[in-house]
Amino acid sequence: MYPQHYIEFLAHFHGTRDYFECHEVLEHHWKETEPGYRDSVWVLLIQFAVSLYHLRRGNRKGASILINKTIQKLSKNKENLLELGIDYHRFENLVISTKTGIDSGDLYKSENIPVNDTNLLKEVKQLCKEWGVSYGDSSNLLKKDIIDKHKRRRV
Questions:
Q1: Where are the domains of the chain?
Q2: Which of 75, 95, 114, 141 has the fewest CB atoms lying closer than 10 Å?
Q3: pTM here?
């Protein structure tokens, strides 16, 4: 029912907490389905994950830029988010509270995208299990291989 790349995105977001990989997986899907369309729901989800990637690394400026871009896309993607099994109002509140935290100087904390489709959640949790990670656990802030993943990227 949902694109496999989206399921993988959610498993990375909630399981591995590898936001860089969230970007990679969903960017591939976006480029296949809506290349160049910057207001896409896929771009919104990518930008939200990347804002958390920057915040976790202490790059508040980068986090602020990306969370603002996420907010700009929210209202025009309400129906798309609902179709992806996301509770729009809870997600909107999460994005806004994340922005407030960034602006206030709060430290990173792991967040969960509010998915309300139980079948989708089962698929995501099963994939997390297959990968050997727990769904919904907080980021391990000592895992530099994930926190600074962009530094290890092969071009």
A1: 7-149
A2: 75
A3: 0.91
Contact 34, 42 (CB under 8 A): yes
pLDDT digit string, tens, across residues 17-75: 999 999 999 999 999 999 888 999 999 999 999 999 999 999 999 999 999 999 999 99
Which architecture does CATH list for 7-149? Orthogonal Bundle (1.10)
And the tokens for 70?
């996420």
> How far, in whole angstroms, is CA 10 from its chain's centroid?
7
Q: Which pLDDT belongs to residue 1?
A: 87
Burial track 113-146 (b if 16+ CB lie within 10 A, e otherwise): bbbebeebeebbbebbeeeebebeeebeeeeeeb
**How far is it, in rounded angstroms, from Cα 64 to Cα 83?**
27
- Sequence-distant (6+) residues with CB within 8 A of 2 are 84, 85, 120, 123
Interatomic CA distance for residues 14 and 5, integer angstroms: 14
- Asked whether residue 149 carries a pLDDT value surpassing 90, the answer given is no
CB 103 within 8 A of CB 93: no
